[in-house]
Amino acid sequence: MRRYFGTDGVRGRANLEPLSPETVFKIGRAAAYIMLQNNKEVKTILGKDTRLSGDMLEAAFSAGICSSGGNVLNVGVMPTPGIAYLTKALSADMGVIISASHNPYEDNGIKIFSNNGLKLPDEKEMEIEKLLNGDIDNHRPTGKGIGRIINATGFEDQYLSFVKGSLDGYINLSKVKIVVDCANGATSYIVPKLLRDLGADVIYYNIEPDGKNINMKCGSLYPEFIREKLLENNADLGLTFDGDGDRLITVDEKGEVRDGDFIMAICAKYLIEENKLPNRKIVTTVMSNLGFDRAIEIMGGELTKTQIGDRYVIEEMLRTGAYLGGEQSGHIIFLNHHTTGDGVITALQLLNIIYRTKKSLSQLSKCLKKYPQILVNIPINERRNPNEIPEIKKVISETEKKLGNSGRVLVRLSGTEQLIRVMLEGRDKKKIDRIGREIAKVVKKNFK
């Protein structure tokens, strides 16, 4: 098992391992060192979300890059997909975002993009890990060989122009009332300007980050917040982003939460009907609902599933030539528009469909009927694979026999948090609730 990198970069409690300034400095050194193998110079685009520890870790990572002889263009607060875009647009060798996405403000993380705007593949992350455990102290440039840091602002407008380019021509949202939750995160400075330019009647919430309120009972993990505001304001649509802007969860005009499965199903149906989805391929993860599988089948689409993590979805999309993919959690990828999941582009694609079809979100959502699903998160202190523990393997096997073809069970170690996640799906809600409690009890017993 890897020590530093999980399913979405390095993540943990800021100022503790592996997110201490000392280790982050080493990660920066190692990442730049690897990039230097193919380049005489290394240019890195570096950004962050709004959490308090961002300045500290940004400084440590930048120092590490400079220590290896690389240069840093520091663009300040920017959504994660904005860094992916700028990395490619500015012909940088590497893009880095200091962010823990949907996690609380005490946490932080590091996500690294290669020069093509894609997240680093597993093998590159493993190379970095090996260098952290090894010794690259003999690589110590001095004099003019030391890198430099350039602080720059004003790239928000360039990113906004890019995301607007994903629209299918002109749309006018003057008749649409939207409530938006920016989670006090990186979209707080982006989304208000974007939707205002499109003429929408918008009410914004959580757009005043103070370093400690990012994701605090708001954003994509707390859609009940924007649901309450939607009903309170009698709005047509609710949009809620996560802290770094790569996820989107929506709420329809009736107050029903519509997650990534619904968004993908709506987009797939529209694109297939408009003959704008080459080969009709869609990629998602094993977390997507069985109802989503059935919906894509009815539409005439071809579905492929991967392990958890949008990076694996993107890898499969590149392999199969799919344009649309994503996760139930709200990471949606439109590969013909961007190289990574982008909550802002996802919002625009959905608004485009609402405008073109003249249908409400609740009407569009009828294309998917979900199976009952439960998710139990179990806090742990020790990171072990639950599927390698005999007693847990046994209860999973017994559950699979009970559910048969009418449901499924998934028990996994979270790649971003100190949790074991237990997911069950089936036609009978009471049955899966009971079985879920039984499995959770066995997991807790083995992770005391």
Key words describing this protein structure:
Alpha-D-Glucose-1,6-Bisphosphate, Chain A, domain 3; 448 residues; globular; 3 domains; single chain; alpha/beta; 7-stranded mixed beta sheet; 19 strands; TATA-Binding Protein; 5-stranded mixed beta sheet; 37% helix
What is the fold's blueprint, element by element?
Elements: E1 5-6, E2 9-13, H1 21-36, E3 43-48, H2 54-67, E4 71-77, H3 80-89, E5 94-98, E6 107-114, H4 122-133, E7 149-151, H5 156-164, E8 177-181, H6 191-197, E9 201-205, H7 223-233, E10 237-241, E11 248-252, E12 257-258, H8 260-273, E13 281-285, H9 290-299, E14 302-306, H10 310-320, E15 324-326, E16 332-334, H11 343-357, H12 361-364, E17 373-379, H13 390-403, E18 407-413, E19 419-426, H14 429-446
Helix pairs in contact: 1-2, 1-4, 8-9, 8-11, 13-14
Structure description:
The protein has 448 residues and is an alpha/beta fold. The chain is 37% helix and 21% strand. The strands form 4 sheets. A 7-stranded mixed β-sheet has the order 1-2-6-5-3-4-7, sandwiched between helices. The protein has a 5-stranded mixed β-sheet with strand order 9-8-10-11-12, sandwiched between helices. Helix 6 links the parallel strand 8 (177-181) and strand 9 (201-205). The chain is globular.
Q: Please report the first level of CATH classification, the CATH class of the largest domain.
A: Alpha Beta
Radius of gyration: 22 Å
Give me the number of helical elements.
14
What is the end-to-end distance? Answer: 20 Å
Shape: globular
Please outline the major beta sheet. 7 strands, mixed
Low-confidence stretches: none
Architecture of the largest domain, according to CATH? 3-Layer(aba) Sandwich
| Helix share bin | 25-40%
CATH homology superfamily of the largest domain: Alpha-D-Glucose-1,6-Bisphosphate, subunit A, domain 3
Walk across the major sheet and give the strand order.
1-2-6-5-3-4-7
Q: How many β-strands, per DSSP?
A: 19
Q: Please, how many domains?
A: 3
Strand content: 15-25%
Helix/sheet category = alpha/beta
Query: What is the third-level CATH name, the topology of the largest domain?
Result: Alpha-D-Glucose-1,6-Bisphosphate, Chain A, domain 3
